Amino acid sequence: MSETNTSDLTPDELRREIERLQVELQETTQEKVQAAEYGLAVLEEKERLRLQIEEIEGHYETVKHELDCAKEVWVKIFKFLYDYFSKDMIMFRPCVDLEIGLS
After folding, report:
1. For residue 75, is it within any domain?
2. Residue 37 in domain
3. Eight-state DSSP code of residue 8
4. pTM to 2 decimal places
5. Total domain count for the chain?
6. Average pLDDT for runs of 10 along the chain of length 103
7. Quick check: is 1 in a domain?
8. From CA 28, how far away is CA 35, in angstroms rounded?
9. In this structure, is residue 16 part of a structural domain?
10. 64 is in which domain, residue-wise?
């Protein structure tokens, strides 16, 4: 921005300088408005992403809990089957040994 001694300017030069300064002020104001709109858009996007992260984290916790429950059920089923077949094998072991000895 150049400093001009306005006392040396003619009325036409003063009008042109005023018009130039008004245009410059308008451009600067428009740039600030655009920057503010961009900043607002960034903040809105940040908030949208924060909410999306909260939603995903909630879904993750739900799925993790369901998986833990399913693991507990599978462990119980596996233990039950292991115990069941272990007992059967112990009970039938003499029969298997006898069959193997007869063959």
Report:
1. yes
2. yes
3. G
4. 0.55
5. 1
6. 70 94 98 98 98 98 97 92 74 56 55
7. no
8. 11
9. yes
10. 8-102
